[in-house]
Amino acid sequence: MENLMFVYCSCKVIWTVLVTILGYASSLPVGDDSLCTAEELAKYKIIFTGKWSQIAFPKQYPLYRPPAQWSSLLGVTHSSDYSMWKKDEYASNGVRDFAEKGEAWVLMKEIEEAGEKIQSVHGIFSAPAISSGTGQTSTELEVHPRHPLVSFVVRIVPSPDWFVGIDSLNLCEGDHWMEEVSVDLFPYDAGTDSGFTFSSPNFATIPQDTVTEITCSSPNHPANSFYYPKLKILPPIAQVTMVKIKKSQLGLSAPFINLPAKSNEITDTVSETPLDCEVSQWSSWGLCRGVCRETGTKIRTRFVLLQPANNGMPCPHLDEETGCEPENCV
């Protein structure tokens, strides 16, 4: 009987220890390779810089209705068991609405429903829109050892469903927070609209595709507004910088960086992206004109599809003529 009681008590102790360990583990971010043991809380200044200029991206660059611009920035700090968006996975309804129309209501509801995966209301942050392709906007965010990851989205305007953003950037390095980090941003397709160009009409992708990065050769179609087959990679269309705010600076607003005094336009050294002229196929040959029993001429034409830019290949001749024998002569 005493042996049975000993076995029972031993099992009870082991079970209690297992429950305690599992309960602690369930409170930790899932999938973290290393536990963040940094100080309790850190604040960062996040600066989003648009680099969408006509020099860097000359093809079909939107000049009006509407001109090139950026939506407001919407982001969140969170644990590793939450994902706002992820490459090669399907966008949520909230990300779809934001990428297509700039509407944030559904995405905000999805963030709220994430519960403890989010750093409470202090983990949600936003920054104002930018009314041009180049410029800056900024805000502040808070991170916590249990919520050290940062994700955000900014819609490319105009576009079918294109955006830039960060997916789960970890600001914690073991026992300390990173002092500063900068990331170049490239365009993504949310996989919910099938347009090729900035001004494409709404045409839903059925069935929905996954989130994919847009490159200079993908989608591999000449109509694609980011199609630059002579480039190896696209230049960055934007950049984000996060700077840790020192405790002595808390409560003080950090200024923009690299901003002129009277505008949010920025001057940045970018390489000019050459854009070659594109022309249509030749038309059919026209009628042969000339005097009977003498050599006549006929003409065919083509037209410019895309004007060259930044020292790209100039347009060839748009008409061509050749000799012929006039028909129906009397």
From TrEMBL:
Nucleotide-binding recorded as keyword: no
Domain Spondin: 32-222
Keyword terms: Calcium, Cell adhesion, Disulfide bond, Extracellular matrix, Glycoprotein, Immunity, Innate immunity, Metal-binding, Secreted, Signal
GO cellular component: extracellular matrix
Residues that span the membrane, as ranges: none
Domain of life of the native organism: Eukaryota
GO biological process, one term: cell adhesion
Molecular function GO terms recorded: metal ion binding
Subcellular location: Secreted, Extracellular space, Extracellular matrix
Assembly notes: Monomer. Interacts with integrin.
NCBIfam families assigned: NF038123_dom
The name this protein goes by in its record: Spondin-2
The species this protein was found in: Corvus moneduloides (New Caledonian crow)
